[in-house]
Amino acid sequence: MDSRFNLKFYVFLCVSVTLWLNHIFVLSSSVAFGAEYHGLVSVEDYYSNDSSSAYNFSFLTTRLRLDATKLNEAGNLSFHFDGRERNNLGTKDYNSKYIKSERIDTLNLEYAASDRFYLAVGRMWPKELSLERVDGVNLIFQSTTYGLGLFGGMKPNPYTEEFNSEYTTAGGYLFYRKEDTSASIAFTSNGYKSGIDRQYIYGQLSSSLTKILRFYGSVTADNNQLTNNTDLTNLILELSFRPTYGRNLTFGFNQFRSFRLYKSMEFDIANTEQQSYYVRGDYRFYDRYTLYGKYERQSLQYRAYLTETKGSNIYQFGLRNDNLLNRDVTLDINAVTVDSYSSSYNTYNVEASKFFTERFQMVFNGSYMQTKYTFTDYTDTVTNYGAYGYWFLSKKWNLSVSYDGRQGKDYSTNTVISRITYKF
């Protein structure tokens, strides 16, 4: 498949293939059946101007999502497509080398012969591994609670998402599903020009330990081809305690480290690592007020250059009212204070929203941020303000318009995004 083909070709292809398959299966079946078609078509306009830039940016993006199910008499064959095309309407574009006008997120056929067997062919995310993308095959064998999945094929170009034959991917995963617990572990090997580009293991666990206590964790570990060791790339741990409705306390830890593509990456990356510990909670009272807050301790380590750990403390405190003055207005006021290694800032935010009818919602927001830089003793202030409107025109049509403005000491920006969507 030539990556020069644009989205119009893919749209034509997916619709034609779907109708052709439906026609073939209907003709070959002795009992008539009806395929089901669902999806959406949306057109979005993005416009932004910046006083510090000589150019304004304007992009028109069209998206099509199509899910065609029950394409055969047994009802176990389906087709899925999700793609976008972006057109530049302004005087300047971003770096078009890596931002292509056409993007195909999903294009595949699915076949589920029974509750125990599943097969998908095309472009997809493997069912139990949302980190990976494959232009190939995903095969699953499963029971009521356990399952085994295998996938392999080409891998979309990680920079442009184009179809190509230089990048490959293959792997497998095991998963467990029960009412209160889900778990999976996967191994993936990415290739580039017959060499190993990246190999990693991913695992996740979500479990309700008790009726009021829940745990979530995920981990990604990469094979370091230079040292032959295993690097812990990403780690997320979270424990939530919810004794009653409207009362919640959560403790968490996460770690993120950049990973390397050993064959396709033509440059070195800094071996940085970010860690954070946090606790957050909320308390609802008088059936309309919610008091919430969060404390987070972050540390950033530049292991490639410095041994010093750069840390920051983040404090957030807020109050939300879900029915202000008995007018069905939701008002949220919060403040954030951050004290980091090279700067500190305070942010004050307010947001109000209201459904004027069942079909129309308005949201207004504003914030004020003051930043002080430690090394230069320079202070910067930024004011943000915005409005958002959402119209449910009918069961199938909706329209949204948003405006965001930012005013700094030496610059200002204005952004308007409008989108109309038709669901079928």
Overview of this protein structure:
By secondary structure, this protein is mainly beta. It has 1 helix and 22 strands. The protein has a 22-stranded antiparallel beta barrel. Mean pLDDT is 88; it is low at 1-7 and 24-32.
Order of helices and strands: HEEEEEEEEEEEEEEEEEEEEEE
Mean pLDDT rating: 88
How far the N terminus sits from the C terminus, by CA atoms, comes to 29 Å
Strand content: over 45%
Please report the total strand number as a whole number: 22
Return the structural class.
mainly beta
Low-confidence segments, given as residue ranges, are 1-7, 24-32
The main sheet comes to: 22 strands, antiparallel, barrel
Count up the helices: 1
Which bin fits the share of residues in helices?
A: under 10%
How would you describe the shape?
A: globular
Rg over C-alpha atoms, rounded to the nearest angstrom: 25 Å
Question: What is the compact description of this entry?
Answer:
5% of the residues lie in helices and 64% in strands.
Topology:
Blueprint: H1 7-28, E1 36-50, E2 57-69, E3 77-88, E4 102-114, E5 117-124, E6 134-142, E7 146-154, E8 167-177, E9 181-192, E10 195-208, E11 213-224, E12 229-244, E13 247-257, E14 272-285, E15 289-302, E16 309-321, E17 329-339, E18 343-357, E19 360-373, E20 379-391, E21 397-407, E22 412-423
Antiparallel strand pairs: 1-2, 1-22, 2-3, 3-4, 4-5, 5-6, 6-7, 7-8, 8-9, 9-10, 10-11, 11-12, 12-13, 13-14, 14-15, 15-16, 16-17, 17-18, 18-19, 19-20, 20-21, 21-22
